[in-house]
Predict the 3D structure of the following.
Amino acid sequence: MRTVAGVITIPATLIVSYLADRFGRRKVFIITFLIDRIASILYAAVRKLAFVPILAGIAALSAGEFLPILIAYELFPARYRGFVGIACNVVWVVTACFIPLMGNFIRQWRMLRLTLTGIATAVGLILFWFVTESPTWLISQHRYTEAENLLRKIAKFNKIKLPETTIIEKQYLLQEQDAISGGTLQSTARVTSESASRGQVRGKLDCCRPRDKVEDREQSEQPQGAEVQHGQRFSDLLKSRRMRIITLIVSGLFLVNALVYSGLFFLASYLPGNIHLNNFLMIVVELPSYFVALLVMPRLGRKWMAIAFLTVAGVGLLASAIEITEFGQQHPWIALVTALIGKVGIAGSYAVVYLYGPELFPTSLRTLGFSTCRVSEMAAQIMLPYASMYLVKIASWLPRVLFGGLAILISIPILFLPETKGRALPETIQEIESWR
């Protein structure tokens, strides 16, 4: 079932990412979430084995679980984006801690799945009311009126008074966003000096005008020859040398992080001790890495934080080789300790990469670029069970040593990526090309 879901998820993710860039993040996320919830409930309810792979495939078609993260990144300014990214992972850990605990009491898998799916669906339906569209995406589509209305709605919620009349120019919208809640929204638009000199983005927005007249005016004032930045093509990721390097390295990061992170969960059953307790510890030890990231990343930056975490994961897992020695054989708990050290490092690395990756792609290509890199993550999920089972038959410590070596190796190419700490999310490929 895991293989069926993985194979279907790869093209589904690319399709969902294109639709999100074309029609908006919020709409696509809600649709994919509902498809996934319905399929998950039916998955646990059906009794005939023939329907199981079909429902697993339908659930995999949703593939939009990453969209809320992108919306959050595009809503907050650079100085808060790191906190938001790590906070999402903390919520994940706290929630995931209940799974092995519930599994210890609910032994029937159907009932366990229905219980977890029901809770997740109920929470999701409530949170739908709080999910907004990305102002960054709205402005990239020249939907200035909707972006303006959204900013005013958020400002009203935060009890911030904005001017009655605003200017459509992108630079003004940037200043307005930074003003809301002392900068709780991400800087979603900038006007380049070239476009400003040509007067490509101009005009005023009178909030008292009828909506249809405002929209007509927006259409008439779009830059001549410019196209609304709908979802772009995969080839756009390969046009420039900088984008090719970013796509390749981030794809490698997702591949290794997925192998090591999921592999340690998979290998928990081969570690000494109770399987439920081992899984619980594998989840809980992620919390220290997230708190370290919150404290250190604002100073160290994304690039060096990812390298540091991967190094910790690599050293911890390579230490598994001590099991070969007489000391290691006399103290089987060493296997669990080295695995937990590796989990601390790889969990921190995964959290940083999930924050760092989207920051390296422009708005019109963000979901497509991010999803393209995540294809390697899904490929790792497909390979993992077969590779781990084969290696663990040779030696119980061998998969962990291999994972440690991969973590050390993938940390080297990160040196060729630009640092995004303190930068607003890029809107164009040209902007990323100018980064040093």
